[in-house]
Amino acid sequence: MVSDAIIVLGGGINADGSLPVVVKKRVNKAVELYKKGRAPRLIMSGKWSINAKIKYPCTEAEAMEDYAVSCGVDNDDVLVEKESQDTLGNAYWSKINFLKPAKWHNVLVVTSDFHVKRAKYIFSKVFGAEYSV
Q1: pTM for this structure?
Q2: How sure is the predictor about 51, in pLDDT bands with cuts at 50, 70 and 90?
């Protein structure tokens, strides 16, 4: 089944604006799914952690967008959600900014293994029964 979008959750950013290995793995998985035709677009989600001690040169979402494009994703197929600072925000802002306006109801969420259970719970609560995650 083809989903409307693949939401990639941020997971940190280095002081220089580069992505940590764990986030690159998330983007790599999303790029793989995109190239296999599982969804026509990616939503990169994340500003930076609510616990951030510095102001980074870009958001996690912007850094993920740049990395995905460097991996062969068409720039027009990448949407950037750069308001969220935690998983709850990832779900809320992705829904409000992209899913509701476009009437998309079927998404894939890419995160890390250690984060799947929490992300699934939060997304199911924020999205509700009208969305398939």
Answers
A1: 0.96
A2: confident
